[in-house]
Amino acid sequence: MKRGFLNGSKAKSRPLGPALDGAASTNNQNHAPKKFERLPIGKQEKLDLTLPEGYKNEAQYLERDPMGGSMPDAMTYTTVPFGGPRNDDDPSCECLFHPGSKEVLLKIPGFPRPLKHPATPGFRIAKIPGKGTGLVSKRALKAGDLILSERPLVAWAQGMPIPFPATFTRQQCIQYQLQETEKMREVSFKRMRPRDKEAYMALWNCHKEDGSGPLTGIARTNSVALEGLRPGVNDESADYCATCKLISRLNHSCSPNTFPRFDIPSFSYRLYAVRDIAEGEELTFQYTHVVNATAKRQEALKPYDFTCSCTACKDPGSDKRRAAISYFSQTDGVLLTGSCLNETTFAQCEKQYKRIVQEGLEHLPEYFDIMQLLMQGCIGFGDAKGASEWAAKLDKCYWDEKCDSEKLDDLLDPESPAYQKHSLWRVLVDAGIPGKPVGMSQMLKQFAAMAGPGKSTMLPGGGAIVNVISPSIEADRVKVPIWKSPLTSSLVSQLYSLVLMALIEVIANDRLGRKVRVKCSPDDTVGDLKKLIAAQTGTDHTKIQLKKWYTIYKDHITLSDYEIHDGMSLEMY
Ligand SMILES: C[S@@+](CC[C@H](N)C(=O)[O-])C[C@H]1O[C@@H](n2cnc3c(N)ncnc32)[C@H](O)[C@@H]1O
Fold first, then answer.
1. Contacts of 314 by beta carbon, 8 Å cutoff, 6+ apart
2. Using one digit for the tens of pLDDT, what is the confidence trace for 475-509?
3. What CATH class is the domain 10-299?
4. By Cβ atoms counted within 10 A, which residue in 212, 339, 468, 498 is the most buried?
5. Interface confidence (ipTM) of the complex
6. Three-state SS for 483?
7. pTM for the full model?
8. H-run or E-run covering 80
9. Would you kindly state where each structural domain of the chain is located, as residue ranges?
10. Where in this chain does the record put each SET domain (predicted)?
11. How far apart are CA 32 and CA 425, in angstroms?
12. Reduced to 3 states, what is the DSSP secondary structure of residue 411?
C-alpha cells in the first residue's frame, strides 16, 4: 500500500499505500528507466531475459561497519538500531540506504529514540469479510488518538542505481530492475531476525506473477512511503518504502479513518485516528490519491486485486464534492490567507471544510490548511470563541506535520490575552470590512508574505511581481497589476480570482515523455517561463531550450507574442 503509499505526484497529499513500491508514471513509454527511477506501479508483463554476454550490474552495495557512514556512490545496508537490536524485544528495521541517509540519522542525539506507545493499544487484528486480514479498533477512538507505534520491518530505497544494457527495451529494463532489486533485498533479508523474516513473509503479496521476486512482491503490495531521508540525492525516486508487520495490514478506504506519520528520531510510524472511530470499526488507510474521481481510484487500485466498495465509491454525489475540494485547494484556496478573508471568502472556506468532512478526507493536508484559515479568519474578525474552537481541532491533528501544539496552546482559551496580542486580531474588522479601503501596500504585503522571502519584487510605481510557491501548486506565479485606486476587501478577493483566471497553463514535454505543467501569464517572457519550469524540475533555467516544430523560442519574447495559449504543449530540451 502506499498509504501515503507512494503514488508519486504531490508530496502534499501523497497517499501512503501498499503496492506502490515504485511510482513511475512513465511505465508505458519506451525508454530505459533513469538512474533512480522507481519500479513502475502496477503489474508488469513477465519476460524471460537474456543478458548480453559478459554484462554485469556494476552498482556498488556495501555492508558497512554499523556505526560507519555512507560511501559516495554506494548503497548501504544497515540495521536500525545501528549495531543491531539491543535486546530481544527491541524492534529492528533492515535498511538499504542511499548515500547520505544514514548520516541524517547519525546526527540525531539518542537515535533511535524509544517508541511512543499509546497507554492502551487501540486496535486488534481481525479477519474482515472479503478483505482478508485487517485492523479493527479495540475501543472508541477520538480524532488525534494514537492507535499504535511501529518500527518498520524493512526500509528499502525505492529507486536503485541500476545500469541497464543499452539494447534492452523499456519492458526488459523493468524486468531486469525487478530481478536486480530482488537480489539486493535478499542481502537485507538475510540480516533479519528469524521472527521478523517470518512476519515479513506472512504479508500479502499481489505481485506473484509479474516477475517480482517474493521480497519485492510483498514490498510492492504493502509498503508505506517514507520521506525525508535523502539529503545526498535530489530526486523524489530516492525516497524509501517501508513495510510493517501491523500497519501493512490496514485495508484501503477512499475515506480512510487513520494516517501513519513517520517519526524520524524514533524511526517509527505513529498511526493516528483522523476522526472519531467507534469500537469495532475497521481501521483503514488510503492506497491511492483519494481526491480523484471514483473511476480513477478504481483504476489505480487494480494492482491490489480488489474493487473498492466503500461509501464514497457507491455515493453518486461524491465525485462532484471531491472535484470541488480539489478545485478550491488549487485555485482560491492557494491565494487566501487569514488576513485577506472577507465574509464571502470565509463562507467559501466553511463550505470547503464541510465538503472535506462529508467526504471523510480529514487525513489530507487540505483539512489542516482550511481549519487554520478559518481560525485565522475568526481572529481577523475578532471572534476569539470561534477561533478557539478551530484551535482545539487543529491541536489534535497530530498526523499532520504542520500541527504544532505549542503554537496553538495560547489560543485554546477564548479569554486568553494572546488573542488581543495576535498580529491578525481584528484586522478584517478594522481594515477590511466591505466598503472600507484596503491600502495597496497592505495588499502587496499580503501577496509578498504568501510568496515567502525573496520571492517577490516590488515594482517602481506601485505594482509587484510575486511568485507564489504553495505546497499544493509548486510554482504558481501571480502578477499583481499596478493598481491606482484604493481597494476594498471585496475588490481584493475579486482581484485574486481575476489573477488566477488570467493565468494560462503551458505543458513542457521532455524527450523522455515527462510533462511539466506550469501556470504563467501571457505577458511572461519565454525566459520567465524557463525559470518557472526550472523551479519545478530543479534544473538550471539557462540550460532549458523550448521549441515547437521548427521554432526555437527566444528568451526575451513574450508568450502572447508567440501566440502560446492555455493548454499548449512545447518541446523541452
Ligand atoms: C496491504 S494488504 C492489506 C492486508 C491484507 N488484507 C491482508 O490480508 O494481509 C492489501 C490487500 O488487502 C486487500 N484489500 C485491501 N483493501 C481492500 C478493500 N477495501 N476491499 C477488499 N480487499 C482489500 C486486497 O487483497 C489487497 O491486495
1. none
2. 334 444 333 333 444 445 545 544 444 567 888 98
3. mainly beta
4. 212
5. 1.00
6. coil
7. 0.74
8. strand 74-80
9. 10-299, 336-421, 443-572
10. 121-288
11. 56
12. coil
